[in-house]
Structures are given as C-alpha cells and as structure tokens.
Design goal:
two-stranded antiparallel ribbon; mainly alpha; 151 residues
Length: 151
C-alpha cells in the first residue's frame, strides 16, 4: 500500500470512528433519558424490578452521591474521617497524567536520545516506575464536518 493510500485509509477510519462516537453519544443520551423515566415509573408503581419475557430484568437501584459542602477543605474532611475511625476511606495518590506531562516536558528540553524516560525522574522515584517508554502516535487533523457527511 502506498503512503498516500495508507493516509487516506487512516482518515476514513478516523471519520468512521468519529461518526460512531456521535451516534454512541446520541444513543447514550436517549438511554439516560429512558432510564430516568423508567426509574420514576417503577418508584411510582412501588416496584423494585420488572422481568421481561425475553429474560432481561430492569431493577430499580438507589445510589448515594456525596460532595464536600462549601466552606470545608479536603484536609478538614480527611482529618474528620481519621478522627472518626474512617481513615480507610481516605486514599492518597499521585496524578499520573500530571507526571506524564512533567516527564514529557523534561524530555522535550533535552537534546539527548532517552531510551527510558524514568531516568528523567528524581533518583529516588526512578526505581518506583517500571517503564518510561514513550510510544509514537499519529493524529488526524483538518477533517471538516462536511467532509465527514460526504463520505
């Protein structure tokens, strides 16, 4: 396959992926709306589930969501969890995407060929990460909506 043919095939796949994504988003929004309507209907009728003749079951479930109230800091909430013996609900972590951006920035600043990007980290952190290999990717730009519709 010639380079331009391969590039055109890549653009066609990109367009197909984007169109499929748009269709999936529309279906997801429609599903969300139908799901909310069904939850209201089941609650109104006092039912926990409905079993269809085809074997599927629709169940009414309840989920709890919590958001920190205004006026409190994360540190205050964490300390309150710990004081109330709920420290196991607290999780300390690092931001993987921020670390990736930090290392990529360091890599861009060096003129050397770097086979293992972990070597760009502070010495103490280097053994804590297994791989620092950056894999090359390509992207498609300049595809207009009209071009997508024409395909």
């Amino acid at each position: 396959m010639k380079l331009l043919e391969q590039a055109e095939a890549l653009v066609a796949l990109y367009v197909a992926k984007r169109e499929a994504g748009d269709a999936a988003k529309a279906a997801s929004a429609e599903y969300q709306s139908a799901m909310e309507a069904m939850a209201i209907r089941l609650a109104e009728e006092g039912l926990q589930n409905v079993k269809l003749a085809t074997g599927e079951t629709i169940k009414l479930t309840r989920s709890a969501y919590f958001r920190m109230a205004d006026g409190f800091t994360t540190e205050q909430v964490v300390e309150a969890f710990k004081r109330n013996e709920l420290g196991d609900l607290v999780k300390e972590t690092y931001a993987a995407q921020t670390l990736k951006a930090y290392v990529s920035e360091l890599h861009d600043q060096t003129d050397e060929v770097v086979d293992d990007l972990t070597t760009l980290l502070p010495e103490e952190l280097q053994p804590m990460f297994i791989s620092g290999v950056e894999s090359p990717t390509v992207g498609v730009t300049g595809v207009k909506k009209k071009k997508m519709e024409a395909r």
